[in-house]
Design goal:
Blueprint: H1 5-11, E1 12-25, E2 29-36, E3 40-46, E4 65-71, E5 77-86, H2 90-93, H3 95-111, H4 119-134, H5 137-155, E6 176-179, E7 184-186, H6 188-191, E8 198-200, H7 202-213, H8 216-219, H9 226-244, H10 249-267
Helix pairs in contact: 3-4, 3-5, 3-10, 4-5, 5-9, 7-9
Length: 268
């Protein structure tokens, strides 16, 4: 017996989505982990998308922003139609930009659960992929640090940078201490001598607070030295790994690719 039109409409829903990761399933299908503004993170089945004649294949590439028509299924919901909104094509044309895309997608995947709806995270993801696709190469790392701190804030893990996590006193512009375990900065009185806290030089302290509190248009104008940015990245990476309780695999890959690019640039 044919399915009634009303029942069929109830089984279908349309959503925007960005593809975070994918894996092959069966002979021609693919499981897609996507992030959406209205349904949060979903795992969807793209039937037949690995076939060369598939019309959906190009619209569900990694990091692509698409509009999907989805049918509810027993195990996974099924992608029945897909149309690209923004391909972010440069993220798949440059290995360095691809590496940043993997990094951004892995962090979002790690900090979210399926079906947790978070429109602000959706906007941050979409805007960050746009920046990684359009920015100059020297700005990519800064865009990633902006993403790190703002994703942490939206996920509820924002490091405390303005008051001491021990005494709640306003932090002075001096050498304070950063504690991953305590979730932020300790004043000299409470941080000095603690084995779980490291000195936080004033330039690094200022950079953290600036990136955490300013809009991207202002942050994009920062001109951090390579050494200072390396320290900013190291500190945030350690904090993120602690909060996720697992390593970020794409971060090591990204560092390797970046070192190769820098080596080629120096020798050219």
């Amino acid at each position: 017996m044919n399915e009634a039109p009303v029942e069929r409409r109830q089984r279908l829903y349309r959503t925007e989505a960005i593809v975070l990761k994918r894996r092959d399933y069966g002979e021609a299908d693919r499981l897609l982990t996507v992030f959406t503004p209205e349904h949060g993170k979903l795992v969807l089945l793209g039937k037949g998308v690995r076939k060369t004649q598939s019309r959906k294949a190009g619209h569900v590439e990694l990091f692509t922003h698409s509009t999907l028509l989805v049918a509810k299924g027993r195990t996974w919901d099924l992608v029945t139609q897909a149309e690209t909104v923004e391909s972010f094509l440069p993220l798949r044309e440059s290995l360095l930009r691809t590496s940043y895309g993997y990094y951004v997608a892995e962090l979002l995947d790690g900090f979210t659960q399926e079906h947790d709806v978070h429109p602000a995270m959706w906007r941050l993801l979409r805007e960050t992929l746009g920046r990684l696709a359009a920015s100059k190469e020297e700005t990519l790392a800064l865009a990633a640090r902006f993403y790190d701190l703002h994703l942490l804030m939206l996920a509820g893990y924002q490091p405390q940078l303005f008051t001491c996590v021990a005494c709640q006193a306003a932090l002075e512009p001096t050498t304070n201490y950063f504690s991953i375990v305590e979730g932020g900065v300790l004043c000299p009185q409470h941080g000095e001598g603690r084995v779980d806290a490291e000195p936080l030089p004033l330039p690094l302290f200022k950079a953290l607070r600036f990136v955490q509190t300013r809009e991207w248009q202002e942050v994009a104008q920062l001109n951090l030295s390579p050494g200072l940015h390396a320290e900013l990245e190291r500190l945030l990476h350690g904090y993120i790994v602690y909060q996720l309780e697992r390593n970020v695999r794409s971060a090591a890959f990204l560092r390797t690719i970046r070192e190769q690019v820098q080596s080629v640039t120096r020798n050219s």
